[in-house]
Each structure stands twice: as C-alpha cells, then as structure tokens.
Design a protein that fits this description.
The chain is mainly alpha-helical. The chain contains eleven helices and two strands. Strand 1 and strand 2 (165-169) form a beta hairpin. Helix 3 (55-71) packs parallel to helix 5 (101-118) and helix 4 (76-94) runs antiparallel to helix 5. The termini are far apart.
C-alpha cells in the first residue's frame, strides 16, 4: 500500500504542480473534472444512506460555481446556489413526492462540500503570487499527512478519534503539526511570503484544519459503511480520499489571506 501511495504521488504531484503553474482555463477545466468525479463519488454516499441523488441540478450548480470562480464573478457562490435550487425545485415538483427534505439537504451539502470548497483553489491562484500560495497550501497538507503517517506508525499509542478513524493517533497528529511548521518555515524562508509569526500561525492552523478534513471524510465513509470513496487513485482511494484535507483548508486559507491583507 505504501509503495502504491509513493508511486501515485511521484506521478500525481508533478502533474498537479504543472496544472497550478499554468493556471487559467487549464486549472479551471482540470478542477471542474476533479469536482465532477468527486460529486460522482459523493452521490454513492447518498445512495448507500438510502437517499436520492438529484445529479443534474448539482452538476449544473458545480459548473456555474467553477465558471463563476474562474471569471471572478462577485457573487459566484450565490449564483451557483440559485441555479441549483431552481433546478432542484423544478425536479422536486415534477417528481413530487419522490424526494423528501433530507434528499434536498444532502444534495445541497454535496454541492457545497465538493464544489464550493475546491473552487477556492481558483480564487487562491488568482491572488498576487497565487502559484506560490497554492503550492504553500499543498506543501502544508502533504507535510501534515506525511508527518502524521510516520509519527503515528513509529510512536503512535494514544488514539485520536477511535470511533471515526481507529488508526489515527495523537502522536501522529502532533507529528503532522511539527513537520508542517518545519516545511512552512523553510518554504517561506526562500519566498518571503509571510512574516515568521504569520507563517507559524498558518502552518499550524492549516495542519489542524486539514487533519479535521481527513476525519470528516472518514466519518462520512463510516456512516455509509465504505472504506474508500473510490478507487481512481492507486494507494489513495478516490478523489475525496485524496483531497479531503484540501476541501477544508482551501476556503480557510483564502479567507484568512483576505483578512490578513485587510488587517495588514
């Protein structure tokens, strides 16, 4: 399993960095494909929990969200939600009473959890020094995952959240935090993106939020009784398995940067 993870990383990371570097339409198109694949995975969660998928309204909502983020519409999220809601209402009325309130809620959550969150990568890339900022985010995520994996493997004794993810340990979590801070400091030393207190704050917070994202996705899988969200990425599982930390950290990082720019 570790060998497959390493091979997938060696192939996938350069491709991801290349996509981020080119940015523009290439990034938006690649991200939309990623979001659609993630949506297909999430709809299986809904089906396994005996819910009903409203795929077309969600799909069109995801497309509008990505288009709006790429075109830098001021109210891109509101427009995407509006499109989905209108189509959801039409489908719900046309097939009444096939869908219940829980179906409406889970499909809206799918739009937000997969689409709204990941589209913040486009918003981050559009910022000044956007490539280096997105790369900083992924380096923190990867450092946190790597530090947690090896610290947990060699030193892990105390379970972090046994009912959600039995293999994760407190020692592993601390190792993830530690490596994130080290990598964040080294990266920032050469690029000078932030002051030292800010980079320490960001590295620690993003590592915590990223680990939380991992646990959230583990909880969702446990609720529906699956081990992985999919099998698209060898050694990693599905899209949601690989980008669970990005889902939570991308919006947090973006709005923190906006806040810091206003405070500064």
């Amino acid at each position: 399993m570790l060998g497959l993870r390493v091979i997938s990383a060696l192939v996938g990371i350069p491709v991801l960095i290349g996509i981020i570097y080119v940015g523009d339409v290439f990034l938006a198109g690649s991200l939309l494909l990623l979001i659609i694949l993630g949506t297909l995975e999430f709809q299986e969660f809904i089906k396994k929990s005996n819910g009903k998928v409203m795929f077309l309204p969600v799909l069109l909502g995801q497309i509008v969200l990505t288009l709006g983020a790429f075109a830098q519409w001021a109210h891109w999220f509101s427009i995407g939600i509006l499109i989905m809601l209108l189509l959801t209402f039409i489908q719900g009325l046309a097939k009444f009473p096939q869908y219940n309130l829980l179906d409406f809620s889970t499909n809206l959550f799918m739009l937000i959890y997969v689409g709204w969150t990941l589209n913040h990568l486009i918003l981050l890339r559009n910022l000044d020094q956007g490539f280096w900022l997105v790369l900083f985010l992924f380096l923190i995520i990867w450092s946190s995952d790597t530090g947690a994996y090896f610290s947990g493997r060699f030193f892990g004794k105390n379970k972090l959240a046994p009912q959600v993810s039995p293999n994760k340990t407190i020692e592993g979590s601390i190792g993830g935090l530690f490596l994130s801070v080290i990598i964040g400091i080294i990266y920032n030393y050469y690029l000078n993106l932030f002051s030292l207190p800010i980079v320490l704050f960001l590295a620690l917070l993003l590592s915590v939020i990223g680990q939380m994202g991992d646990l959230i996705e583990s909880a969702l899988k446990r609720l529906v009784g699956v081990k992985d969200s999919g099998n698209l990425i060898p050694g990693h599982g599905g899209i949601l398995d690989r980008f669970d930390s990005t889902i939570t950290t991308a919006p947090v990082f973006f709005y923190l940067l906006i806040l810091l720019s206003k405070v500064g």
